Records
---
Amino acid sequence: MNYTAEIIAVGTELLLGNIANTDAQDVSIALSELGINVFFQTVVGDNVERLKQAVNIAKSRANIIITTGGLGPTFDDLTKQTLAEAFGKKLILNKDVANTIMAYFEKRLPGIKMTNNNLRQAELPEGCVVFDNGVGTAPGCAFESDGTHVLMLPGPPRECREMLKTCVTPYLKKLSESEIHSHNIHIFGLGESAVEEKLRDLMENLQNPTLAPYAKTGEVMLRLTAKARSASEAEKLMKPVLDKVRETLGDIVYGVDTGSLENTVASLLIDHGTSLATAESCTGGLLSKRLTDIPGASNFFFGGLVTYSVASKTTLLGIDPLLIKEKHAVSREVALAMADGARSGLGADIGVGITGLAGPDGDGSDVEPGTVFVALTTNEASFCRRLSLSPDRDRTRAMGASHALDMIRRHLTGLRVVGE
Amino acid sequence: MNYTAEIIAVGTELLLGNIANTDAQDVSIALSELGINVFFQTVVGDNVERLKQAVNIAKSRANIIITTGGLGPTFDDLTKQTLAEAFGKKLILNKDVANTIMAYFEKRLPGIKMTNNNLRQAELPEGCVVFDNGVGTAPGCAFESDGTHVLMLPGPPRECREMLKTCVTPYLKKLSESEIHSHNIHIFGLGESAVEEKLRDLMENLQNPTLAPYAKTGEVMLRLTAKARSASEAEKLMKPVLDKVRETLGDIVYGVDTGSLENTVASLLIDHGTSLATAESCTGGLLSKRLTDIPGASNFFFGGLVTYSVASKTTLLGIDPLLIKEKHAVSREVALAMADGARSGLGADIGVGITGLAGPDGDGSDVEPGTVFVALTTNEASFCRRLSLSPDRDRTRAMGASHALDMIRRHLTGLRVVGE
């Protein structure tokens, strides 16, 4: 049997934009791990007519319908009634669930009288499987009708996530025959469209595994996904594609399943027993922030200096003010001096210096906003990249930090650090 | 004319759960500010047939259709073709847009040959209004057909958000008869449910204006929105509610329409002509990163030291190693010494020191993960807050930085800096 799922999130707060639909994301992740296709997600408010409409559409194109939200005790919680009716089921008071809810109230809120509407949470579609709510009162449930499986989950993200893990995945695993396995291929140094251009022939002809690109600031991730009866069979399907991608893209692939660039760099620094110190101007601490996002960063990160003012470059890094005057604070020479200053000041193996004009405005000199110099120095070598970016403050800063990480990675793995 | 909007987000990555649908949230917020109803949000993959199906359903129940995603240069970017076809429009190469894209490439990536697929981004439905993309290459657009307005926005959240502000809101405002005006009330120091509890009576009885809470890490924002025929009429409706909120919440309201906490602090520092230096341990540069997010930060931010290792606290801040040994690196005394070290080292008016154990793991000592000390010192005064947070690394770091900003704000505005 081939399953197609559709997710319906119920809640007016989603339509007002009060919260992001993280429930749909969590359900999608769980389904994609099970190899179950999701073709549509829908969001509908707390409104019986419109929910009915969404359910009828979903019925026509999916055989697994998963709803989130609208299971609570209040009058606008209408999911169970509406779904039961749509599939010709009655709601019946489940005594076990009613007892659990009463016990919950007695235990958590002694002395507070439970209102009757709380018992509405114990009314469930006849013949359903009850999904216990480990972290709240409203249970979820699942029933089958004419080959369609309907699963209803609570809306609060913590409750939904917990129920996905403990109830939904086991329920759906029983339905599914094949497994899904995937690899994430991480790329820095080429934009999304250029990556796709290089891989177009490969991507267009793939059925299983599939290869899909995801872009984030300055980076591209390719997800390679295979459907098979076992992990080893999936790996066998993915291996030649992974090899081909590596061969085509070369050393701009910085890792497979390694997480972020900072994660990769952190692992490399730890493996090499190499220590790092940073001096940041335009990035204002973003590089050190990203490095210290990694638990255990104290093993390699000796410290950082955010020398945002000209004076601080002199005070903290010992840079000759004449050099800054002569070459400009945003220059190759100052970036290199910053890297050296951080490295010697903190006694680290590698020093990184970043100076640039993040913009949006210029500083009155010839330096264009969006210009960034990123330098890396060690005892033996020194490198500097010059970036000419669009004068978008956030992006310029993000790219400055990412280029620094890329230079560290290249230096530690024996690749060419600057230029092609 | 009464408008009902439907949002269609296009992207397989959403159906796989790779990202949350924040675009739909952002669009919903923008529409709700304009007083336009949204009854459905749909997510569909990069698939022509299913996108067509979603568009046809949306056509039958809404007269504003807003899509996000699928405007890029790659072969799976199909939104424009599909929407144009659904409404009987041709795609035509827009020369102005093509020139802009070519100029963009020439300027940003000199020497790199633009691939032809990038020009596909300049093919737009005949007779459409072009929405310039301020932060990327793919333009958005809008057209009207038989009373239905179709608006297409790019998928990358940054581009979508920017286009909502600069193009979509002005476009839709022209359709609407009444004006919507709003104020954002920014709060730090109380959680969302506590804020709601305090304001419950007020919020429940409001019709126009409305008051809606939005939570982000450690902060709450209340959006006050009024619908009226003019700005001054809207202000008249909002004034008493705004006064009541301020009266109820007191000095935890850090600003109205002031943007982020760092924005507020930056303005205060500039107004007071006060300079700042920071020393960060567990936050690893996050505070200085947030301060330097603000253009013009060099006017008040003299510099920052990221003293992630014990040695760097001694080397860079001149802290007596015995003090660290005796009191522990995560202690009130060390936080204060860090603030003093940064202040005197950089010659700034205010010094801030943050030291903590972000977790998730402990360091073998008595200090609990989630413990953070935030110190602020000046020539005359010194303050230190002790935070006991849950051992969630990202949250602990974010809260440490936010508390530092809150302390600076309180110090500069003559409020009590520590304790209640």
---
Amino acid sequence: MAGGISVTSVARLIEEFERLPGIGPRTAQRLTFFLLKAPAEQARALARAVLDMKDNVILCEVCFHISEQPVCGICSSESRDRSKICVVEDSLDVIALDRTGSYHGLYHVLHGAISPVDGIGPEDLKINELMTRLEQNNFSELLLATNPNLEGEATAMYISRLIGERRMLITRLARGLPVGGDLEYADEVTLTRAIEGRREI
Amino acid sequence: MAGGISVTSVARLIEEFERLPGIGPRTAQRLTFFLLKAPAEQARALARAVLDMKDNVILCEVCFHISEQPVCGICSSESRDRSKICVVEDSLDVIALDRTGSYHGLYHVLHGAISPVDGIGPEDLKINELMTRLEQNNFSELLLATNPNLEGEATAMYISRLIGERRMLITRLARGLPVGGDLEYADEVTLTRAIEGRREI
């Protein structure tokens, strides 16, 4: 019983909300009571949206980004630059990068990063599928946009070694100070990377 | 399209989450992708909990607290002190007060507070129903636990005037410094109330 709430279906919804990441007991309670007072259509629309997503969303069979078609909108688009491929850990990364409007190539979603601690090896990721794509296509650039952390670096390193001697530009996203950030709050590693990567103005 | 996400059912769920209070675009996206990866049963359980709540929850016909029965668990309980009645604005207030374990009487939920600015008058609240209860029962104490703000005070004042000369103790919750709070951060009104209500130790 969530917080001593004796109305079963209310307590159950609070519990379900609490299972979502970043939603504490207070927020779960607030969301539940909001929906309790909200028009029935709004509550129904939320429930339907959850079910529809689980029913309809699959992974693109080319790049493994989320999709409602066997091949996703990016892979099937005629306006993308098919000479570039960007490797990311997650579908959310595709969305974040694409929103910038500064990259117009294709993507490949690994669905994770190599992490021995969590028991995730290369075989658990879409790395074999990436290698097949690289063999079958003639990409001029491979952008390894895995996260700038230990696992992401290891994964990028692993992939670049696996590729070896192929004639293709292999790049990583630039490291440095975040725009709008404050120099004095930047950690040492970021500052070091910012100094190493300094550019002439 | 939420943030340029071209997968319709994903974008729709993000939009539905964004309609909930306190959920911004980032959180909506995070929750959606969490559910996308979560087991189908978890997503289904959330959707079902939303629908069940909307289908099953009604208001208690005695006190207007949320309930799944015509008469709620508090009103039908044999262990409550039936000589006391506590008036609150909202069902959440019932839950908060009951969780303290320091009040064992009955409740009456007004479903709002008088607020001329928002066009909410006494006739929009469960005030007539409260008067009927007061007439038909012999309560020894009426605790007016509306919020300690303008609307809550006005509502408490209105109700106490309406009751007039009846022989019944009418009380308000104590005002003062919140426990664990810091004196220097308390606002002037709260401090004034804390001084006025000071007690001998």
